[in-house]
Amino acid sequence: MRSLLLFICCIASLGKADAQKTDKKLEREIQNLVSGFHGSVGIYVHDLKRDRIVAINADTVFPTASIVKIPILLGIMQKISTGELDYHQRLTYTNDLFYDEGDDILSRFKDSATIELSKVIMLMLTISDNCASLWLQQLAGGGTRINQVLDSLGYSTTRVNSRTAGREAGRAQYGWGQSSPAEIAALMEKIVKGEIFNREASAKMLRLLGRQYWDEQALSAIPAGIFAADKNGAVDGSRNEVVYVNGPKRPYIFSIFTKNNQDQSWEKNNEAWVMTRKLSALLWEYFE
What tens digit of pLDDT does each residue of 156-175 get? Predict the structure, then answer.
């Protein structure tokens, strides 16, 4: 009986400790910021110095849009880590890889042109080149294998759906990929801490994610001299971003996902993008 009571007390203490990890003041400020948004929003924030979080619909599944390129990156880096691929090996582009949706660079290549794998990865992450991303998904062994890698790392929500057998229902509901604000932020945190595959692989991924062309939303609120690793994604009804900010006082990670957005415009004043910029500015001021 004494052991049982001790066990119950320990569990209660753990629950209390977990509850204390929420930054209530910041949570109120963020709730005020997102109230009235015309759509669904999920947010996860982690103060890495004080180990405090804010989680708003953070376990809800959202479409990733181009944030799916982080799981694809994991699939590629796993193969590089095991020696199945070489970061600097040359690849040959062929016309059957052509994918022309948006303003991609790789799809402008001529048949039989060659390019380093490292540069294809750069195109996927820096400018979010879809042609490069689909090629890398293929080189990583396809969506099924990438999902197996995610499973092996403990991620059960984040999935590649497009061109992946058995993921047709997920594709219909969420598009190319799916994740939750909490899980994608946790994945980013593991990269930051050097805990994905090995420290070398994690460091390479962090550097790659720190070279972002699309810097007009969350990144626009962060001073240019501060290192930030970022991936964003957007389709008509969903605008998302996950960011690591190496702030000098309190480094932090945050993610914001939206779906069912009423405002599906592509102008700077799109409601979800305005909210993202305001959230990023709020967090920078709060932590620094």
Answer: 999 999 999 999 999 999 99
The CATH number of residue 277's host domain is 3.40.710.10
Residue-by-residue DSSP string for 29-65: HHHHHHTT-SSEEEEEEEETTTTEEEEESTTS-EE-G
Domain assignment present for residue 8? The answer is no
Model pTM? 0.93
> Does some domain include residue 88?
yes
In the listed set 151, 174, 197, which residue is the last one of a domain according to the structure? 174
Beginning with the edge strand found earlier in the chain, give each strand of the sheet holding 228-235 in spatial order.
Answer: 52-56, 40-47, 252-259, 238-245, 228-235
Q: How many CB atoms lie within 10 A of CB 70?
A: 23
Nearest to 31 by CA among 278, 239, 216, 222: 278
Whole-angstrom Cα distance, residue 157 to residue 182?
10
Boundary-marking domain end, from 120, 152, 174? 174
